[in-house]
Please model this.
Amino acid sequence: MKNTLLCAITLLFGLTTPSFAKPNVLLITADDLGLQLSCYGDPYIETPNLDALAADGVKFCTAYVTQASCSSSRSSMFTGFYPHTTGQIGLANAGFTLNPSQIGKNLPAYLKSAGYQTGILGKLHVSPETSFPFDFRPKKQDTRDVRAVAENAATFFKESKNDPFFLMVNYTDPHVYKDKKTNKSTFPARWKGLPEDPIAENTVPGWDFQGFDEPIARERVSNFYNTVKRVDIGIGLLLSELDKSENRENTLVIFLGDHGPPFNRGKTTCYESGLRVPFLVRWPGVSKAGLESTALVSATDIVPTVLDATGIDSPFKLHGVSLRPALTSSQSPENWRTHLVGEFHYHGTQAFFPRRAIRDQRYKLIHNLLAGKTTPINRVDGDPTGKFAATDKYRDTPAGIAFRRYEDPPEWEFYDLEKDPIEFENLISHVEHAATIESLKSALVEWRKETKDPLLDSDGIDRFLQKAETAKKKMLKK
Model:
């Protein structure tokens, strides 16, 4: 039955079985990781293994995921489409799933049909999981245990020695850890003894994109950095196993976060701290070592890049493009995109607050589609820092004002990211920016039409509301 299905996919998409000289693919994600790496200039942490990967390949300075929520973001990594097309507009564990028309249109399916061994370590988190054909998926994985991750990867490399492979490695860190006894969300400073030298609590100040430098903020952010240190250790162990398998020179390596940190004004938003992630690519024989590229790149570019590298014709017109032309120069290639777009719909089934965001190299526009009618999620993964916004200390500060805007956004937000990278000052009413604002509005509408955004009309919004009701019913049946 399985072979029959693969033959059908091969015939449908016109895929061909590659020779064993075809490159392997190693796709690595860290859960809830923003730009908190030393190779991205973060002063509070050293990440030598990821820095080494950046030095061996290309570091993209400005990269977006499609939605700052795990399942939606990952659906785009697998398909090359935005969530409004994949249908995975909220969390898989909240009952959301891919649209029926998207079933089977994913990277492991394409590669398996072309003769690749496929494997995954850690979360898949896109539904239905049965539509993703993985040959190797160990049960009961703990991907905070980075030593075990490397051991499992080594097993997969050994089992795939006669075929090209695709392996996706998904580290749980730096996602919060939910203690079942206390119901508290924390960031484990150490896990299975790592890191051996954790950063002391209260060492790192609260996030600049929040502006609340309080003891609880310092504690949580300091421990968040320890989870990032653990990821970096894991990357070193993983890439060491790749080297031992003698596959280094024939493996395309892509690393990124699935969205920004799980803190208020980060994850589940369209702010830079939610959408923007580290994005590193090492493509032997193609990428230029040590390059820092200013090209605007998207997680939708992963599928077309991998298909390009493996010699597989893209079966559909995808929302992303191959990164090949952006891997040899620090400047954007000719005819490269001039804008990046992100969106948001749901996390769980509550608080439907659809957004669309677009930026160029300097300016950013956010359209909150249901502003004034409802409000978004205003607390994520147990982050308690929002309570400071209403205190006398912060109420009338830029941080307090920005937090209230986060709780109840206006229809439009506009930011100068060069002068205000943390998006505290909404310049939407400033007349000196009127022309730029109108240009970004036009570009956003053009993108929405081009990608057939269902929320361009009220019927589409009603359909997305119905998807949440369907998701709720699905979960109640479990």
